[in-house]
């Protein structure tokens, strides 16, 4: 959803900087600013993390994707946050174990 060369937003026709997170329609392959398509940075990063294709307003149909409903986005965000918390807890547990091992060796 981000990176690469400078692209033009198909909605406002302005340049989208390389350093800015942008949307890329998986159907028509056009690029958009997040603001122009009213997509939050959190939702854009969520789609990227889940490797889900995004569809612009022109390519989206009412039944195309659960992302078209706020409850679908909120539910997915909640699941992703739970997974991240669980992953972080596992990392913390592993780090504590490694610290104990190092302390025992000294």
TrEMBL record:
Please indicate if the UniProt record lists Metal-binding as a keyword. Answer: yes
Q: Which residues form the PHD-type domain?
A: 6-62
GO MF annotation list: zinc ion binding
* Keywords linked to the UniProt accession: Metal-binding, Zinc, Zinc-finger
Superkingdom is Eukaryota
Write down what this protein is called.
Answer: PHD-type domain-containing protein
What species does this protein belong to? Answer: Acanthoscelides obtectus (Bean weevil)
């Amino acid at each position: 959803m981000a990176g690469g060369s400078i692209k033009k937003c198909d909605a406002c026709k302005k340049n989208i900087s390389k350093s800015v997170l942008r949307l890329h329609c998986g159907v028509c392959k056009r690029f958009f600013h997040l603001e122009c398509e009213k997509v939050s940075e959190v939702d854009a990063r969520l789609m990227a993390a889940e490797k889900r294709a995004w569809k612009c307003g022109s390519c989206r149909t009412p039944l195309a994707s659960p992302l078209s409903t706020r409850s679908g986005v909120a539910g997915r965000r909640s699941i992703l946050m739970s997974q991240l918390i669980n992953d972080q807890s596992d990392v913390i547990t592993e780090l504590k174990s490694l610290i104990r091992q190092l302390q025992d060796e000294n």
